[in-house]
Design brief:
The chain has 724 residues and is an alpha/beta fold. The longest helix has 65 residues. The chain has 27 helices and twelve strands. Helix 25 links the parallel strand 10 and strand 11. The radius of gyration is 39 Å and the shape is flat.
Amino acid sequence: MKLYYFIILLFGITMTAQNEGENSESNDSVDYFIELAQFHKKNNNYRSSQDYIQKAIQFAENNKDINAQADAYLFLGNLYFELNKIEDAIQIYTKTIALYQTQLPCYNQAYTFYNLGLCFIELKNYAKAEFYFKKAEQIFDIIEVPQAKEMVNLQKGIVYRAKGENELALSILNSVLSNSTDEDPFKTRADAFYHIGLIESDNKRYNLALNYFNKALDLSKTNQNAELIAETTQSLSQVYEKLMDLTNSHKYLKLHVQIRDSIREVNNKRIGTEDFLSFKETERLKAIEQLDKENKEQQRANKFSKLISILSIALITILSLLSLSLYKNNIIRSESNKLLQEKNKELQLAKDKAEKASKARAEFLSTVSHELRTPLNAINGITHLLLEEKPKKSQLEYLTSLKFSGDYLLSFINDILEINRVESENIEIESINVNITQLLEDLQNSFKDIASKNNNQFVLDLDPKIPENLIGDPTKLSQIFINLINNALKFTKDGSVTAKAKVVSQNGTTTGIHFEISDTGIGIPPEKQKSIFESFSQGSVEINRKYGGTGLGLAIVKRLVNLLGGEIQLESTVGVGSTFSFDLDFELGQQTFVEVKKQYDESVFVGKKVLVVEDNKINQMITKKMLENKQIECDLVDSGEEAIESVRNHTYDLVLMDVHLPGINGTIATETIRQFNTSIPIIALTAISLNENREMLLSYGMNDVVTKPFNPDNFYKVIASLLS
């Protein structure tokens, strides 16, 4: 801490110099509050100094001035360091560095790293101290402050001596002496002489040690460094004692005690040295005060309630004396109420237990389905890459089977995730234009191949009165129809499936439509028709093994229909077929619905440079290969911190950002990048879980979202749309 007081002064001069040349300054400003804090600190009024620096921090936060906020935190860290609150100082300095890293390199940033090194010297953690001194030295080199290098070298020499590496320490300390000028702006010479004296004393070269200690003493007196004077006089006393010169030993020991007493007297004059504890807990004390206020109000309410209870008991007693029969009835009623309360408690416990079990089940299934997406992304991605490389005919069969299995597993996982999302009510209903007729016709075209596999006819029976433009949720409607039609085609062979939509009510603003999906399939037994809408239910184990599937489709349909304001109905006869029906009301739209199909030209990929942020090595390999197949150059990084630095220091056309990363995650990394680059497109790569959604990810500054394991066509389409 020998250089510390001088550096504090230098920091204050630097802060003041930044404001030179300004014509005027408001009294309410960060610099003004810091000057007041500095003034009170010099007068040993640390409590007031803390109060003003807190005002400076608050003012900077309110004005979103990150640099000023960092300067204020740096002052607070210095305050804690001077009060020997090392752990608190480290916490504040760490926060200060995080703020400075969003700005251009500057003196105060390097100075913060330097102070962190001083903190870890105090804690005798020399490895960390050396690390932070090197960081400070790098920034001093960047901003070209060569004089500060000797200040850092001095501390590095002190660290090496503390670690027992005396030869290396001696070399560095001698270089500090040889490179320092007569002005010695950072007052490094006195400390260098002192620590060389300690090394010579350790080596039992006492005459050399006396020479260096005397030089250190002379310079420290010139610099008015009381701490160093005290330490040097103590070391001189010890060396003279070893040389058996007891007169000089006693002389310097006496001088050491006098200086220590003087320093202690100065420290005792500091007002509020320990007040920073209350400063840190201000909010907690406010909360306690509020709680006390509420307790007092509750006590008053309890007294009033007690008075009411006493009056009520008196009234009941009087009424009981007037009527014995009424008294008996009251006893019976009291016993009945007690019994009801006990039953209510039992029901509440059972309800809580059921809710906890349901929540645990939903969270477990969501976690499992989410975690399965990462390896599944590797399976589907590698399969896609192998299929693109024109495999042998014998290999094509295996790869096609592997792709089918991967798609099947992905469908299974999506069903699990969807049912959990619906059950958790973590779902929003859209109200946008939808063309019911066009939607069903598109589904008919998409199910042609599936219908032909079982030799089925899939027909539409659509009411021409259905308005072309209605307000609804096309995504939820598609999910309902896809599940019902897919089930009908799966459980029907050599038969027919009919999707029917008929207008049942119509007024000026609302249209009611009745929907039916009927088939001539195997049918559902009466005893299974209620449970068929439950999760993971398919009627029987035999049906599950024969026809496949998750048993989640109808559970999803039922919940989605309920969310849209309808109720699913089932009529079924074994061996004859099944009919699922429901009614929904739609508001009329105001504009003509136009479907826009996005297309892209592969030439947009050529020569582009993309940053891939992904911690999974297999996913890195797959994503890189898929990009290179489109002649896109890409760089790979493993963490959010590396992503921020790469975007800051290089030029990219687009960033593919994994959401779940070690350290800071993809969303925080994106927010940080947006502070200095608002134009670069960023696409989120995520295995979306129960608590994630597209809107949440876009709110962090991402331009689009691709779900893992991603479909290659959709993957390229999203990239092309942003590169265009």
